Amino acid sequence: MPSVRHVSHAFLERQGLTTVFGNPGSNELPFLAGLPAGFRYVLGLHEGAVVGMADGYAQASGRPVLVNLHAAAGSGNAMGALTNAVSSRTPLVIVAGQQVRAAVGPEANLANVDAPTLMKPLVGWAAEPACAEDVPRALAQAVFEATLRRRPAYLSVPYDDWAAEAGENSPAVLDRRVERAAAPSPAQARRLAEEVAAARRPALVLGGDIDSAGRFEDAVRLAERLGGPVWAAPSAFRLPFPNRHPLFRGVLPAGIAPVCAAFEGHDLVLVLGAPVFRYHEYLPGRYLPEGTRLIQVTEDASAAARAPMGGALVADPGAVIDLLTDRLGSPAAPPGPYRPVPAPARAEGPLLHPEQVFAALRDELPGDTAYVVESTSTNAAWWRQMDLRRPGSYYFPAAGGLGFGLPAAVGVALAQPDRPVVGVIGDGSANYGVTALWTAAQHRVPVTIVLLRNGTYGALRWFGGLLGVPDAPGLDIPGLDFTRIAEGYGVCARQVGGAAELRAALAERPGGPRLIQVDTALTTPS
Ligand code: TZD
Ligand code: CA
User: Ligand 1 pocket: which of 402, 425, 466 to mutate (most atoms <8 Å of CB)?
Assistant: First the structure.
């Protein structure tokens, strides 16, 4: 009879979950024993960085990814990073070690006394199998739960289970195949198409799920048939539409009143692949203008249930894009040329304006560059300067949890080795995931980190003004030199001065990771 470990490894291999992001402890070692040759273990030095890398990798590869974490302390360290993975609907399969079964009750050191409960507020599904024999089936369940719900799943396995004999039925999981189809019924499709066709001035709002699902270009086709304006949903974590397309109006502001104002004059708002809505700043007002109807299409049943207004259809937004595109016929008029970029703003004095940095990225890097952005006060400058026309061009921490950007850039570059990948990271944000630099160095991941150093938590300074708190302590972060930090982790790094020096540095194409630090002027996010 094969061991639980043998069947589990074979199952993971069959499902293609052979890249493992992890940070192990004693409880995890028996799972890692005899890992077959086709597996790749990507070690991260802190669990936040492990989950950030796995999140980037899973999003960029469009596949579920295995994460290996230590019991309570290790899993706890991962929680902040998991908030982002939940919001981006990333299918992470977390397998954590547990003390041997007999040692959990007495609370031996490194026992995770109630492992599923620790994780449950965030993960969609968490379990510890009732007996060793059930581990292969429960592992399969974790993979399918993560994939079907598009939400991280967590499996805690007592480490004496791995060497146990698998039951005679265990190999049955090897042949499992679990899929989901979520096309609307013919009646639902007809009603939706009629509602959209009847709208005089429809507006389209696209969420990050459109890009995650590979529907970026299909969304352009639909928008051009509709002929109305397109927004990205508030708090965008992916770019679902080319940002200089003539129909694109930008990312919706993340406040109730400004969202309502944006929809003024529209009788229908069709929201595809997004919650309604992820507001941030509390700017109260009406949700929608008088007479404006909203229809949300999402695969996330919970997002449909919790929305405060509008109708909702729980279905695959990609399938809805296809059916509407088919039924709407050809576009009324060509959409016109892409909008040109404005000249970048300049700062007084020696510091570069972030717009100058972004203009340099736009001009010097290939058009298919994937950007992972975690620089919070530069949001407006970013969208003013960038011209992103390809799917998978933009990633941002989906729940606003810092520590995603730098690790996720490493994960995206591991998943897409042939695509240029750049992390655009603030000097505050970098500290939460900085250990991913070591992983990038060890694997010679060809990622560029552009480190924007303004010496402060810029976005919080702006927020302080908004909230009437001009004097909050703890907002400045002087004395950080990321060129030296990066070199300590084994990553080549340099400081650049003016725009010309930055452009020259960006034009180089090194084979491994590098960090470019640039001192920038303080700007506001909007
Ligand atoms: N901790 C975590 C894990 N996530 C957070 N979002 C924060 C703290 C709070 N926070 C923000 O929301 S923005 C920000 C903090 C600390 C400042 C980020 O500073 P930065 O970017 O240097 O990366 P800017 O451009 O200077 O704002
Ligand atoms: Ca900063």
Answer: 402
